[in-house]
Amino acid sequence: MLLRHDPVYSSRRSPVLADNVVATSQPLATQAGLSILQQGGNAVDAAIATAATLTVVEPTGNGLGSDAFCILWDGKRLHGLNASGRSPAGWTPERFPDGMPQKGWDSVTVPGAVSAWVELSERFGKLGLAAVLAPAIRYAREGFIISPVIGELWARGAASLKDQPGFADHFMPGGRVPKAGERFVNKAAARTLKAIAESHGKAFYEGEIADKIVAFSKANGGVMSKKDLAEHSVDWCGTISQSFGDVALHEIPPNGQGIAALMALGILEHTSIRDHGPDDLAAVHLQLEAIKLAYSDLHRFVSDQRFMKEVTEKDLLDPGYLKQRAGLINMEQAQNFGPGAPKRGGTVLLNTADASGMMVSFIQSNYAGFGSGVVVPDTGIALQNRGFGFTTEAGHPNRVGPRKRPFHTIIPGFAMKNGAPLMAFGMMGGPIQAQGHVQLLLRTQLWDQDVQVAADAPRWRMIENLDVACEPTMPEALLEGLTDLGHHIRIESPDNAFGFGGAQLVQRLAGGGYAAGSDPRKDGQAAGF
Fold first, then answer.
1. I want to staple 41 with a disulfide (CB 3.0 to 4.6 A). Which of 127, 356, 381, 424 is the partner?
2. Three-state secondary structure string covering 280-336
3. Is residue 226 exposed (0-12), middle (13-18) or buried (19+ Cβ within 10 Å)?
4. pLDDT tens readout for residues 503-524
5. Which residues are catalytic?
6. Nearest residue to 435 via CA among 318, 288, 273, 282
7. DSSP result, 84-119
8. CA dihedral (525, 408, 238, 326) positive or negative
């Protein structure tokens, strides 16, 4: 990995170089994680502290009612954790004759983030939940000052969610959206976090907090039950991977979109991508076509792993199948691709690492900004809207049903090199995440850009079919070339809707220590000591 300033991308920051590092989208959360490392905690303790603090200081992307996933290197081996929740037992396709709602109680599945914190702390942590949740409790109890970025997202979210149960009472104190520069106090969340710490999460899934969640659901027409919460469980699911030269990208197995990044990378392995530079027309065209091929299969075949009967993850990653798909790419023309036949052949992302060699890639999300818009009174729990990830299409593996995990967009990423840990990384931002993993991996590993340069570099996002969103900082000649190939280019601001994500990267250095980078599109900060 090169360590250099690159004026091409207007990079004004160098990567942070240290033996212990934290990188995430909000400086207060980064410092919370760093403080835990300074107290003798490890990278897992720091990740939990950072994640919990983010639920308080960046509520526009996550909350106590989020879902979560994690990939971590414990110093000896790689682990994958799926803590996403399942649908209520009362959900059937017949309940949703008009399709899956994007907000309200009928978009809420069992929240899993708290279970991820508990599981990680008990299996790998050193300090215990009371210590690692302390920074989040303090910010909730004493308040934090809202940044301009979060203030804008807050106003945008409130405009569409203010009528949802509990939203205005919690997120619009005094009847209005708080502004940038104002302090927001969340004493209800402080009490909930304290109860989680004292009960090791039992209060959330089985005790008085669970009672409040269920009562509020019933009062507003939802069907979430005490049994739905009590029977929630996490899965140590391992990872799935795809090699690209001597580097292997690892992702969490379905129900998430990480497999699309692996498929795209496997397709690119059979192209001329290595012959081109990072911003060459041919390189971007190849990536876009590979992503389109991968996403066409993703949306047709991927769901809760238990329901992938027709096509499995092994089928989708079959080398012969990926080579066949690569053969469909035309270097002279952008194309629309349908799904293949494999059988024939608002989120937050954080990375931590410590001097012992432990590395963590952790992601949690409410899905669409504030999520469902539902906030359980007197708890500070803003609930995700992951149920919107289901479909009602008959015969589809991702069709809504009882006690089923929906398709997920949030994915942590991890790269290994010759069997050794190399990089914990990822990108928040809905549908750009798998696309972003490919862009970040190629920039850092194929084209030797350092982690901060890779985070700063201009991005593209395949929207649908031939439509591609591009940042205005992309070279004009590149945009013209993509247009000439038949791509329908749309210039978007980084803060537009799903936008271009927010990357965090922590890469191990050959001589020891780490290089950490954080995305300038957010309030991001990488820090270390």
1. 127
2. CHHHHHHHHHHHHHHHHHHHHHCCCHHHCCCCCHHHHCCHHHHHHHHCCCCCCCCCC
3. middle
4. 999 999 999 999 999 999 999 9
5. 347
6. 288
7. -----TT--GGG-TT---SSSGGGPPPP-HHHHHHH
8. negative
